[in-house]
Predict the structure.
Amino acid sequence: MGRWIINAAWPYVNSVPHLGTFIHLLSADVYARYLRLKGEEVIAVTGSDEHGTPIEVEAIRNGVPPRQLTDRVHNQICELLDAYNIRLDNYTRTESPVHIKYTQELYTKLYNNGYIYTQNVNLPYCEVDKRFLPDRFVEGTCPHCGFEQARGDQCDSCGRVLDPLELIRPRCVFCNSTPTVKSSTHWFFDLPKFRDKLYTSVKENKQLPENARNFSLRWLEEGLKPRAVTRDNKWGIPAPFPGAEGKTIYVWLEAVLGYVSASIEWAEKSGRPEAWRDFWFGEGTRNVHFIGKDNIPFHVIIFPALLQATHDPYVLPWQVSSTEFILFDGQKFSKSNKIGVWIDDALKYAPGEYWRYVLIAIRPETRDGNFTWHEFEAHVNAELNDALGNFVHRTLTFINNQFESTIPSPGKLDEKDEQIKNEIEHAPEKIALLLDGFQLRSGLAATIDLARYGNQYLSEREPWHLIKTDHVKTATTLYLASQLVSALEILLSPYLPETSQRIRDQLNLTANRNWSDAGKFRLEAGHRIAKATPLFHKVKVNVS
Ligand SMILES: [Zn+2]
Ligand SMILES: [Zn+2]
């Protein structure tokens, strides 16, 4: 048995997540369910990322405390996670006292270990608002592409990371005036000290996907720069360094620490406060992250460097499953331009279970995925409803009607029967190989292929005609088809837990089973099943 920490990227809570962010939470949930079914020891954690300038800007504009905004969105997300059946061991937030304490202790350790130093930096300063304008408190024209709404930390048009002083015609986001430049003392993390160690570990980690590996190696080859840890922001975690009163820790450099603090909080809540150490300091623990490709540097370079700088024996990220982007009708999701689908609205069009299916079916594992409503309908109607739903329903209603809801005794198997028997027996191993390689999408496709195969088998056999002439052969067909339904119940359960539960109820089976049981014939002849009801319905989406 192995030990696993499953981490999903922390959604930034200036709004509820859109589909592109939600997919990381979903992937973590699917993977944790899969591992548990295999009998592994797992904690799955993440939470709301709530500090930083975008939320502070919105709060100042609305004249409310930032915490009021994040309380609202955080609570909303917790409810939505339930609606999508996302069951993590801890979904917390960066305002959690455990996170704040952990972050301050970690940076104190880094300071004592000599990895933190001060430097004076020139920053834009608004004379009207009497404040420094870090990150998104200043906007202007991008020096690289000429985009006029570039933010102080990044240009949303060309994607380049910016220094606020690089902006052409900078303006304060609050009062629109032109900022002056003022010097301020900041605390820096000596990231270059970790360059060689990181280079070796990234190079040797064969588990990393191509995109994460190549991106990180390129970054490391170019050489690392020290990172400013502090900000002149009020909304954030107070910096614990001597003389740093009034400064907070840069949001990116504390949210990544949430993986550890969320595990500590999980351990405290579960009444075994030291249990998190078994995971984070346990040799052989596999530390898995589900993130988007834009977060690669923070997870493959900065987070491991921060952990190493403590000199404690932390388990570093082993797999960083970094998906490409999901586009919406070919465009990037954008809250301000109302392009995309957010997970609260999504439920108006279809139940959470349908979204779980479609999102994994389009999970952008090797290249950008594209969400369109047309494709959404096609996945639900042709795959969930026609392939999976129909196979299960046809099989079970036939047993209800022709065999008095009792699994029939099989006769002698012919070649076709042997083939389907073979498919069932090898399915858990075959699909596990895909999931062990973090190919969640291919794993799901292979599972649906099994249902298609089952449909084909039924269509070729035509038990509805066969029953008039050959009762034994019909019984064999339905015996085998029902075993395939019971295999699907297990193989689907990481992806579609609710559907799996409904199949289980219809088969009259218990949840006491594991992954490899999917290859066994669990339904004995004579076992009584319940009445079949359709699993899905077709959807037609009218987006106004
Ligand atoms: Zn630009
Ligand atoms: Zn101003």
User: Anything to note?
Assistant: The chain has a mean pLDDT of 96.
